[in-house]
Design brief:
The protein is of the alpha+beta class and about 260 residues long. Helix content is about 30%, strand content about 25%. It folds into 2 domains: about 5-55, no CATH class; about 65-250, Alpha-Beta Complex (Sulfite Oxidase, Chain A, domain 2), CATH 3.90.420. About 30% of the residues are buried. Bound molecules: ligand MTE and molybdenum atom (MO).
Length: about 260
């Protein structure tokens, strides 16, 4: 007889194992593209497992400040390097603004000083990059929820798109392809989702996304958009970029839902 009391861990292990069993045991069915898409989307499975077992508002682990990594390395763009960005940097970002628009009743254009004046959250968390490295750092910033409430997010909004200042093609011209990412409303209103302007008690370095970056602590590194310029509220991601909700999702097939 199996005990009716099942720990969350053994339930998770069991479910994961049976999901893996299903996947490997259904090779012939798995070759049917439509069937696989409908039933065996690892992304849907992952999302379902994480949210049903941990709850939508579960917090990412927070560390003590003395557990920080001695150095928080940079990854991806280390400096947007455009003329626009250089000018912003020279002015110490006094001329930089964060636009908040799309499906909001009150579009905002926020300066760094205005963001600094809003209530802040501080969190020491671990950043996990899919390329195989992690770092623990202390982030300080404004909860995204606060900004969305100030902008009066409309009830038709379903996703927030984060537009960045770095052009991944480096052209800045017609072929410009700026980094972007997106999250849904559950993550947008999660208490650890903040717009961070400081790392380890200092203003963000250019390497780590100055002047402002997203921290959505339940997600992998590539969701943590750096060099923010605009937050756009939308009801559908298909009209943004290549339509998959993020730069790496569009160009390299990364999963949009990068929950950890
Ligand atoms: N605008 C922008 N944001 C970005 C990236 C990027 O290249 N451009 N790289 C992503 C990836 S893959 C990771 S792991 C983290 C790295 O953050 P860090 O440079 O502060 O370590 O930023 C993410 N956000
Ligand atoms: Mo990454």
């Amino acid at each position: 007889m199996t005990s009716p009391i099942v720990s969350r861990r053994s339930l998770l292990t069991g479910l994961t194992a049976s999901a893996a069993g299903l996947l490997s045991g259904c090779d012939s069915l798995g070759r049917d593209e439509r069937f696989r898409k409908a039933l065996f989307s690892a992304e849907n499975m992952h999302k379902w497992l994480q949210r049903s077992l941990q709850g939508r508002d579960a917090l990412a682990h927070e560390f003590r400040p003395d557990q920080r990594s001695p150095f928080f390395r940079g990854n991806g763009t280390l400096n947007p390097g455009t003329e626009d960005y250089k000018a912003l940097w020279r002015s110490k970002f006094a001329d930089w603004r964060l636009q908040v628009d799309g499906l909001v009743d009150r579009p905002l254009s926020l300066s760094l000083a205005q963001l600094h004046a809003m209530p802040a959250r501080v969190q020491t968390t671990r950043h996990d990059c899919v390329e195989g490295w992690s770092a623990i750092g202390t982030w300080r910033g404004v909860p995204l929820k606060t900004v969305l409430e100030a902008a009066r997010l409309r009830s038709s909004a379903r996703y927030l798109v984060f537009h960045c200042l770095d052009d991944m093609n480096g052209s800045g011209g017609d072929g410009a392809s700026f980094y972007y990412e997106s999250i849904d409303l559950v993550d947008a209103f999660h208490p650890q989702t903040i717009l961070a302007y400081a790392l380890n008690d200092r203003p963000l370095d250019v390497r780590n996304g100055a002047p402002l970056r997203l921290r959505a602590e339940r997600h992998l590194g590539y969701k943590q958009a750096k060099y923010l310029s605009r937050i756009e509220a939308v009801d559908d991601l298909r009209g943004i970029g290549g339509g998959k909700g993020g730069y790496w999702e569009d160009v390299a097939g990364y999963e949009w839902y990068a929950g950890i």
